[in-house]
Amino acid sequence: MNLILLTHSREIQKPSNTGKLVQAVITQCKTIIWQRTQADESLLQLIQAGNTALIYPAEDTPCEAAELHHFEHFIIIDSTWQEARKIYNRSPYLQKLPRIQLFSKPSVYNLRRNQITGGLCTAECAIELLHAAQNSAQASELERAFHAFLTR
After folding, report:
1. What is the 8-class DSSP label of residue 58?
2. Cα(109)–Cα(13) distance, rounded to whole angstroms?
3. How far apart are CA 82 and CA 67, in angstroms?
């Protein structure tokens, strides 16, 4: 399983960004800075290979977590929810991907306002994805780091 964090440029320097935490703990994780006018070529190649899914809320026929084995690469949009919607809406290549919606416990992330109901921060999303893929060791390691991050 490979994680790709498609990160908004403003997100990189924010002290509340949990994507950096995911990158530090998960060895199979790559960060790509989202560019509005030009998609990252390596990301487009992964998408063209056909074994990539987007972790993003989907009301219209989302893939279930049980279908994770069909994919090798998972993209998580690393940004605020407002920015994530813009990234998704302005990136036709993301809209073509199968979307996986994670159903989990409510978010405990409290470092930002304007969270959406049922929404998870980047680290929580990665934790739930790892659990769903039965990668409990990495999920637990990231969960410990995330809770330490919240209480620092």
Report:
1. -
2. 18
3. 28
Number of domains, the chain: 1
Which tokens belong to 1? 């399983």
pLDDT tens-digit map of 61-118: 556 666 788 899 999 999 988 899 999 999 999 999 998 887 667 666 665 555 555 5
What is this structure's pTM?
Answer: 0.89
| Residue whose structure tokens are 């979307």 | 99
Contacts of 126 (CB under 8 A, 6+ apart): 3, 22, 26, 29, 76, 142
CA-to-CA separations, 27 to 22, 131, 147, in angstroms, rounded:
9, 16, 19
Q: Is 83 helix (H, G, I), strand (E, B) or coil?
A: helix
Q: Return the bridge partners of 32, or none.
A: 6
Domain span at residue 46 reads 2-150
